[in-house]
Amino acid sequence: MDNLLADADLCVKCGLCLPHCPTYQKTGDENESPRGRIALIQAFAGGQLEPSTKLTDHIDNCLLCHACERACPAVVPYGRLIDNFRSRTYSKHKSSMALSLVKKLADGSISQAAIRPSLRFYQHSGWQKTARWLKLPKLLQLQPLERLLPPLTSPAIELAASYPATSKSVKGNVGLFTGCLGALLDQQTITAAISVLTAVGYNVHLPSTQTCCGALAQHDGDQLSAGQLMATNSNAFAIDDLTAIISLASGCGSQLQAYKDPQFADKVLDISDFLIRHADLSERLKPLPISIRLHTPCSLKNIMRSDAAVARLLAKIPDLTIRPLASTQACCGSAGSYMLEHPKMASLLLDDVLDSALTEPADYLISSNIGCALHIGAGLRERGTNLTVLHPVVLIARQLISAEDGTEK
User: Fold this and answer.
1) Is CATH 3.40.50 the classification given to domain 162-277?
2) Where are the domains of the chain?
3) Tens digit of pLDDT for each residue in 86-110?
């Protein structure tokens, strides 16, 4: 409790965070602002406020987008403050049906090997249309989760434990963190990453014992589960001579970089950042005369601080027109489990992103975080547009030319 109070006392209540807070911008309520939430936590830690539903609701409404933390002149560790408060009140917290299911999928309590074929059958057999017509997802309290399902057009690919470099010279070894939902719902990004990394000279290792990064558990206040997942991943990637541990989702990457084991955390890089630092893609990418809209996840911008790498990487594709969303664009509302627990606010924030994204025609919308991609993709489908959301490495893989024979990779 003393640590909680010490972090809260760093806030001088200057209010410079207010314009950066998505929930405050929507509600105008100081209790829904960073300094308002900090004041509530101060009162709780100091014994002036007892735990209550009203108190925890205001704190739980935070997206943990970290925009306020980036803007704060006093460098208040806001994310740590919120996580610590939630861990203090975790015993009184009840997760939604959707979040409980996702956590079981994430930590391996439910086998993903059985889930993906079931989801493909659900989509392709007509059951999904029937279930939605009968409003079964809503009746089962699973609508916020069910709407996120992307079209699963191909069977799951069984990934190997390692892939050797395909270039003439081998630069080193990297570990690839696939993520729990990424492995289930976005295998094309994983296979694209393997294709690009091996082509530029790296042996790629995918430890079979890797698991969820722990962000869902930690931000839910379940510090015990988060710590167990951290230990499992640290052991899984204890491989000699790894140049980097590469993350494909910035939400996972930001969590991995915060691990207590520096031998693990210091090696974590987002894949776009890694490719900019360690790969020479000059004259190795086919021209692509199309237009894309570029979405920057909060975790990439405000925590990992490597958002510039994505635009630099995509700019290496000749003839590609890149149109980023406005730099003032707030959080899309995904925020890990937020879109499951707070669908109304998540939908309001998503509408702003979609309105911005659809102001100009584009062939793809690019995002570096699977949570954002699923949330935005669902919103686009609900609006009846066929704009597809892709990870940047998928475009790179599609345009990559093999250095050995000059053919498309």
Assistant:
1) yes
2) 2-92, 97-146, 162-277, 291-399
3) 998 887 777 777 888 888 777 776 7
